[in-house]
Amino acid sequence: MSTHAEPTGPTGPTETTEPPSALLARAVVTALLLHGVRDVVVAPGSRNAPLSFAVHDAATAGLLRLHTRVDERSAAFLALGLTRAGARAAVVCTSGTAVANLHPAVLEAAHAGQPLVVVTADRPARLRGTDANQTTDQVGIFGALVATHDLAGPDDVPVLDDPWGPVHLDVQLDDPLLPAAPWRPGVVPGERPARVRPAGVDRIPLGPRTVVVAGDDAGPPARQLAERAGWPLLAEPSSGSRTGTHALRCYRLLLDTDLARSVERVVVVGHPTLSRPVMRLLGRDDVEVWATPGRGAWPARPYRVDRPLGGGRFELVDPADDPADDPAADPTAEVAAGPVRTPWLEAWLEADRAVARRLDALVAAEPGLTAYAVAGAVVRATPPGGLLVVGPSNPVRDLDLMQTGFGVGARRFVVANRGLAGIDGMVSTAIGAALGRPHSTRAIALLGDVTFLHDSNGLVLGPDEPRPDLTLVVVNDDGGSIFATLEQGAPEHADRFERLFGTPHGVDLAALCAATRTPHWRVESLPELEQALASPAGGIEVVEVRVPRQDRREVDARIRGLAAD
Q1: Tell me: the pLDDT tens digits for 36-45?
Q2: What is 368-552's CATH superfamily?
C-alpha cells in the first residue's frame, strides 16, 4: 500500500524525502482509516514515535479522534470499550514489555469476537534475536488466536477486512524515527465494516418443552425466537435480548425446581457464562441442546450440542416438518409474528413473578444496604437508551437478579467483558464504551472494589483527553466477596479465607480519586445512593457504596432458597 502527501512548500520536504519509518507509519494509519477506524489510543514511547506522529496528523486533519494513555493495559481496554460500544478503534504502543501489557485486552477481544486493531512498534529485523534495548519476539506474541502481520515496509501493510476478531500489526521501525514534516493525509476514510451475521435460516420445530438461553451478545434473534414460539427466555444482562414479554428475571433461581426438571430442549444463542444452574441444565442427559457456535476464537461449546445452528435467522415450523427429516420443509406453518403466550410460558412467568416478589422483600428487609439493592438502584437510574457497563464477579450476577424486564423500545445497552470474564481494565472499558456511544441518554458503570482498584490507572487522563459523562458506581465491601459464595468460602476454610481470597485492602477510595482529581461521593444508604444517581455532576465521577461482606454467603444461600419446591 502506498500513501501520498502534499508538499509542504516550494522548498520544504516532500514525501520522497521522508524517512522510511515515517512512510511505513503513514501507510499503517492510512490502512486504519480505510478500515473505518475513527478512534486511536496511543501509549507514549520512542520506537512508536513515527506512528504517534502519523496518528496525530490524521487527528489534526479531522479523520480520527486521538486518545493518549500512559498505561498500555488501560490504553488497550479503552480501545476495547470503544469497540464494544460499536466504534472501530485501534491501540498503538512501543516495543518490549509495552506489547505484553496489551495482552489481557487482546485475549478478551479474541474470545468475545471483538474487532480490536492492535498496532505495535518493533525493532527492525536486523536487531531481532539480539539483546538490543527493548527488543523481544513480538511476531505472534498474542498466540494462535490472533492474526499477526509483520510489516517491514508500506507494501507489507494489509487491507484490513476481517471484522470478527482482533488483528495485530507489528511494525518494524528503523532510525530515524522523526518525520521530516507534518503529514497531510490524502485519504478518504472508509466506512466501518458491517458485522454480518452468518447467512442461512435455522428451522426449529415447536415440539418439545423448550427454553431459550441468551448469553453475552446474543442480540435480538434470541428474544424474537422465544416470543414467536411462546418459550421462556433466560437472558443474561449483556445478551442484548433481555427485553420484551418473555424474559425471566429470576431464571437461575428457578432452574432447581420441578418446572425446570421438565425442560426437554434448550436453544442457546450467544455466550452464556454467569450461571452454574444454566450450565447444569445444558449438561443434563435428558435435555436436547440446540446451539449456535460461539462467536469468539473458539466456536466449540463446552457441552454436548445435539443440533448445531448457524446463528443467523430462525424460523419455526410444525413438528411434522422437522428439517432433519425434510430439508425442504415449508416454513409457512410458522407461528404469528407477534409474541405468543403458551401454558408452558405462563407457568414460567407465574413462577418468576412469585420468586421476584420474595427476592424484593428479602432485599428490602435486610438491615443495611446490600449489593443487590445497589444493583437495583443502578437499574432504576439507567433510562431508556442508556449505557450500563457492568463488571465481573458479583456485580454482573447481582444485576442479573435485579434487572427487571424492559420494553423492546426501552432497551438499555449493557456492556460486559464476558469473553474471558476477567476483572482487567474495567474502568477503561467503561470510559471507552461511554466515548464510543455518545448518544446514550446516560452512562453508568457498576463495578466491585477490587475490579475498580485493578484499573484505577484508567482514571489517569491528561487535560486534553476526551472525557465522557460517566458515573462509576463502586460497590466497596473491602475485598473479594465473590469467593465467599463459592466452595472456598465454606466455614472449614475460614482460617485461610481472608488472606487467600477475601483479600481486604483498606484502600481509601476518596484519596485515590483525589489523586486524579476525579469527583467522589461515598454513600452508605439507599436514599443517599438514589440521590447521588439522580444528580450526576458531569464528566467522570465515582460513587462509592459501602456494603458489608461478612454475611454475603448467608444472604446468597437464602436467595437461592427462594424458589425451593
Answers
A1: 999 999 999 9
A2: Thiamin diphosphate (ThDP)-binding fold, Pyr/PP domains (3.40.50.970)
